């Protein structure tokens, strides 16, 4: 068993239940399936409120097939997502999404290359390319980089068992609705502290049918692999390097554009040096670089209804982190620095075939955002059952737009419109080099009321700078335009979290978490109506600051009723309001949850899960007075899934089941924003589907 921890602190939580982990972490039960996870840590790790860690195994027979990591995240309490097809799920945690969430994949961050969010970071991490998924809901630590006001998603791959010279795994599955299939293979090798892992998978799906039998554009192909090599010392030191490549092709989306290809390539290195000094215990560091190339158009995978359109975009990210683990004045302390730089460019083309080489817009005009942060976090045990954690960070941000004055070769609405000309038309400003200094921090208290019940509470401030789209997208003109605001202020989130956890015998656990978040300078995507400092009233999508309130409750738990029966469930509710207009914040998930009952003999199991959501009546649907980002007041819905497993044929495990057994026609309230469409689009979920999967370890 490896002694390497997840970056920073090793947190082991199950279904939101918090455990103080000893040097070798305790076993835990996952919310959605009964399993045992052993994760060793080099030192005692503190509990982190509102966190869950889940095994991410695409061959897990207890789980229905998931063809995309964002779809897998939907099964974690407190996580929602929107879809525009079968790929590109956009995770939402506590009513926040996109750059309000931080995604760290094996120590690296990447940013998608699609201005319309066809490729959020989680969609580029294939199921099977990580062993565990940790979801931190809300702002619970300053050590995971800037922003992260809504939460952090940690995708991590563990090194192989050093006691096994050769090991591996194989998995495959099929899904009837859309003829989806996925296959993966991984091989691990180790000798004398050195190890190597190679993993690859291939996934395909055609368009599925919703509950009414209507075809939904959702097909895609995805193939990729990872190579990991490393060395571990007996004292817990390690050094690891990895390479990855991923390609998504023929991705169909609802709206005016599809994505014929998205390519991602990346490299990373990380390590830890154990010092074992009186004050300094260890030093951890990481470095990464990746590139995403993306193409979307309206003609490769469909017949265009008018002019041919294409956008070619890329996103280059490089970053790193250095942190010291200290025993400082009787506190468990982490001090460090991190940094990242991201450059995005996107060129929009429009014309007639066979030639389509005239630039219509510099949609992302060579926007670079550099961020460097300093952070520190300490935990002090005040008494045997009372702990105080305090942390702070300062982030320095510098942004540029190298092609803000680049002149397109095609006119838009009778003029050659540069990005700066659009900024001046809508805001009266140009994109100049911009610098920010952002301060954040937190204070958290945890109290063990009994050996099974823990109370927690915390106050935090986190600051998120505007991303490349909010700050500088420049596409179109008039009602179809999207124009970023170069002078937009960063969001300041001030959050109060209060919660409690309970751990019973065996698999019993429960949690409740409440939060309220006052946001100053909330960045709102709105429609141009000649207000908020906007100079035009043509309905273009613009960005401005407002004040907002976000609050909610999360409850969940699991319990073994007998030796054979267990029940598990969770529910989450989020409330969002624009404090300046009094309107609901758009894209807030309604009250939703799940309830499952499982009969498990150890050799085989059968179970069922109800998923449900209430009507979302607090919707921002009218673009004449609000943003219009919500398609409708979405009706409530309920679905039933059945599943079974057979594990008697070791090392082979078989899973089977039916999703949406009653063939309900429904859609999640969350919808993807319009990119080039005049209106946002809400996509129905799949109807009934039968699946079969098989996995084996050797």
From TrEMBL:
GO MF term (any one): siderophore uptake transmembrane transporter activity
Keywords from the named record: Cell outer membrane, Membrane, Receptor, Signal, TonB box, Transmembrane, Transmembrane beta strand, Transport
Similarity comment text for this entry: Belongs to the TonB-dependent receptor family.
Signal peptide feature range: 1-25
Pfam families: Plug, TonB_dep_Rec_b-barrel
Origin species: Marivibrio halodurans
GO terms, biological process: siderophore transmembrane transport
Any one GO CC term of the record: cell outer membrane
Stored PANTHER family: OUTER MEMBRANE PROTEIN C, TONB-DEPENDENT OUTER MEMBRANE RECEPTOR
Official protein name in the record: TonB-dependent copper receptor
Domain annotation TonB-dependent receptor plug: ranges: 62-152
Gene3D superfamilies, per database record: TonB-dependent receptor, beta-barrel domain, TonB-dependent receptor, plug domain
The keyword Nucleotide-binding appears for this protein: no
Domain TonB-dependent receptor-like beta-barrel: 279-661
Topology in the lipid bilayer: Multi-pass membrane protein
Localization per Swiss-Prot or TrEMBL: Cell outer membrane
Listed NCBIfam families: TonB-copper
């Amino acid at each position: 068993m490896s002694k390497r921890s997840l970056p920073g602190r090793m947190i082991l939580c199950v279904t939101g239940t918090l455990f103080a982990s000893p040097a070798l972490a305790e076993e835990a039960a996952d919310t959605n399936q009964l399993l045992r996870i052993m994760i060793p840590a080099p030192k005692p790790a503190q509990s982190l409120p509102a966190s869950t860690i889940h095994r991410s195994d695409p061959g897990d027979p207890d789980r229905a097939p998931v063809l995309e990591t964002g779809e897998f995240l939907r099964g974690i309490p407190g996580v929602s997502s929107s879809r525009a097809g079968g790929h590109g799920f956009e995770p939402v945690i506590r009513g926040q999404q996109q750059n309000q969430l931080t995604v760290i994949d094996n120590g690296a961050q990447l940013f998608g290359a699609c201005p319309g969010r066809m490729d959020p970071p989680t969609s580029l991490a294939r199921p099977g390319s990580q062993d565990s998924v940790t979801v931190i809901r809300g702002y619970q630590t300053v050590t995971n980089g800037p922003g992260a006001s809504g939460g952090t998603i940690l995708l991590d791959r563990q090194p192989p068992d050093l006691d096994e010279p050769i090991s591996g795994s194989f998995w495959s599955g099929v899904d009837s609705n859309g003829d989806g299939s996925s296959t993966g293979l991984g091989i691990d090798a180790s000798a004398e502290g050195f190890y190597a892992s190679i993993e690859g998978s291939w996934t395909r799906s055609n368009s599925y049918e919703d509950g009414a039998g209507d075809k939904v554009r959702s097909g895609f192909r995805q193939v990729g692999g990872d190579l990991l090599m490393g060395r571990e010392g007996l004292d817990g030191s390690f050094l690891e390097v990895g390479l990855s490549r991923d390609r998504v092709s023929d991705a169909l989306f609802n709206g005016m554009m599809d994505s014929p290809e998205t390519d991602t390539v990346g490299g990373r290195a990380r390590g830890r040096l154990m010092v074992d000094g009186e004050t300094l215990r260890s030093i951890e560091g990481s470095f990464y670089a990746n590139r995403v190339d993306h193409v979307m158009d309206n003609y490769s995978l469909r017949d265009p209804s008018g002019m041919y359109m294409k956008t070619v975009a890329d996103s280059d990210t490089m970053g790193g982190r250095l942190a010291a683990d200290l025993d400082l004045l009787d506190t468990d302390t982490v001090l460090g620095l991190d940094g990242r730089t991201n450059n995005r460019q996107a060129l929009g083309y429009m014309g007639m075939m066979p030639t389509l080489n005239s630039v219509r817009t510099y949609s992302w005009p060579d926007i670079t955002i550099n961020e460097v942060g300093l952070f520190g976090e300490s935990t002090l045990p005040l008494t045997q059952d009372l702990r105080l954690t305090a942390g702070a960070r300062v982030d320095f941000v510098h942004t540029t737009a190298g092609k803000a004055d680049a002149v397109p070769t095609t006119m838009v609405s009778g003029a050659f419109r540069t990005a700066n000309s659009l900024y001046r038309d809508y805001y009266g400003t140009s994109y100049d080099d911009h610098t920010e200094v952002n301060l954040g921090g937190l204070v958290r208290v945890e109290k063990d009321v009994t050996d099974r019940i823990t109370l927690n509470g915390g106050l935090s401030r986190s600051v998120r700078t505007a991303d490349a789209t909010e700050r500088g997208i420049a596409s179109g003109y008039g009602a179809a335009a999207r124009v970023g605001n170069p002078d937009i202020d960063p969001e300041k989130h001030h959050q109060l979290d209060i919660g409690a956890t309970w751990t019973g015998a065996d698999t019993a656990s429960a949690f409740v978490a409440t939060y309220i978040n006052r946001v100053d300078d909330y960045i709102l995507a709105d429609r141009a109506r000649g207000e908020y400092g906007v100079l035009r009233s043509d309905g273009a999508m613009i960005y401005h600051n407002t004040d907002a309130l976000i609050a909610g409750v999360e409850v969940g738990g699991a319990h073994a009723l007998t030796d054979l029966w267990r029940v598990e469930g969770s529910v989450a509710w989020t409330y969002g309001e624009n404090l300046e207009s009094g309107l609901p914040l758009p894209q807030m998930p309604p009250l939703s949850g799940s309830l499952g009952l499982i009969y498990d003999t150890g050799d085989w199991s059968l179970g069922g899960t109800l998923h449900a959501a209430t009507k979302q009546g607090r919707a921002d649907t009218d673009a004449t007075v609000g943003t219009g980002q919500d398609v409708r007041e979405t009706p409530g819905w309920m679905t039933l899934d059945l599943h079974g497993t057979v594990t008697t044929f070791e090392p082979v495990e078989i899973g089977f089941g039916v999703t949406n057994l009653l063939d309900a026609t429904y859609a999640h309230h969350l919808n993807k924003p319009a990119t080039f469409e005049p209106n946002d689009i809400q996509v129905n979920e799949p109807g009934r589907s039968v699946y079969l999967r098989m996995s084996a370890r050797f």
